[in-house]
Design goal:
Blueprint: H1 2-10, H2 15-24, H3 39-46, H4 55-68
């Protein structure tokens, strides 16, 4: 989380919106489920639709994701 917090701060981004924009920038993702405990949270998350991450930001997110992603299991297929 600290690496992502630093990346977001470096680019002047809100962490939640940057995370959602990163997921939305992935062409294999067909939908994103967002939530919140108030209408303010929902509106804040929806604003991520307007965030276009630069190539450098996407690369930084990719690097962090590679370190944090869960294990991928191979079932011999």
């Amino acid at each position: 989380m600290e690496a992502f917090r630093a990346l977001a701060a470096k680019h002047g981004r809100d962490m939640a919106q940057m995370a959602l924009a990163f997921v939305l920038a992935n062409p294999t993702v067909t939908s994103v489920i967002i939530g919140g405990t108030s209408q303010k949270h929902i509106e804040h998350n929806i604003a991520a639709l307007e965030v276009a991450l630069a190539k450098e930001e996407l690369q930084g997110c990719d690097e962090i994701w590679r370190k944090l992603r869960p294990l991928t299991f191979f079932y011999g297929r």
